[in-house]
């Protein structure tokens, strides 16, 4: 099966696409991957070169959530059209929205709804989106209408996309997954770790900065300091900012971390949380709908607007090793649900159903 797929070089979509393309090797899928958003790093080039079933076309064209991307998206549409004419894909898998409506595609279109600006705004700002996002909303709505199927990593994300854009598209929920093999738990050291884009309000790292002086262990945060396309840089005085780590550096940090904290206001899935659970971390997460859907009963869930609750629970887990270890074990057991094998099996079935829609079960898998 030939699959034309897009990816962002920024954020979690890159890691998701790596897992998906690797897992699809077992089904003989050939992936023609087009990456938008800037020059690939040396580490990213190395990661994609190892994928024998992937032909990668990198591009520095802007992504639809970046400032004034519309001319770049026009050019991106031409690039994808020419590539589709060349490779004749069985399925087109777009990990963004608006490109679905910019081309007269001959193959079925899958949109991966990993996040979006308006659902981010709804969760983080908790107010109507401003007028300057009107075109973005229009372009995303057009893309959703053009899709044969929209796949989200949680029911919460699928519900929000339907609610916000008011488009009744065919939808499915396939939880993200990773290969558990590289993750391990080693001798733990007294620290708390959080991972995410440090400039992103949605990650709510400022809550950890606010409480750090009252926590018995140091809090470490890992991720980009600078927002893409901006000179805005996040600064911290009380947490220890590690910057962006390589995959191996991240696994090393997680393997030595007893408690992973994610006070996010918005997180459609959270691959770093899954990786932390596989590494033997006790999960302390924001009590938001997506985390409840994925981790309820296997994590401590706290109000992301209540610093005192975070101080109390983190210090309790630090002082109570038995409770901390029990929580880590529950987190790791839950993480076994979210594997690369399970994710890719469902995606492959989905692709086959789209290519031959009269075979197999109905595509709609979400309420």
Overview of the molecule:
The protein has 13 helices and 13 strands. Residues 358-367 have low confidence and may be disordered. A seven-stranded parallel beta sheet has the order 3-2-1-4-5-6-7, sandwiched between helices. The protein has helices at 12-23, 42-49, 70-87, 117-124, 134-146, 155-165, 205-211, 247-255, 271-278, 289-295, 307-319, 321-335, 340-355, and strands spanning 2-8, 30-36, 54-58, 91-94, 109-112, 149-152, 171-173, 192-195, 219-222, 240-243, 259-262, 282-286, 300-302. The protein folds into two domains: 2-178 and 339-355, Glycogen Phosphorylase B (Rossmann fold, 3-Layer(aba) Sandwich), CATH 3.40.50.2000; 192-335, Rossmann fold (3-Layer(aba) Sandwich), CATH 3.40.50.2000. The protein is α/β, with parallel strands linked by helices. Helices cover 40% and strands 16% of the residues. Helix 9 crosses helix 12 (321-335).
Concise overview:
This protein has 13 helices and 13 strands. The protein is α/β, with parallel strands linked by helices.
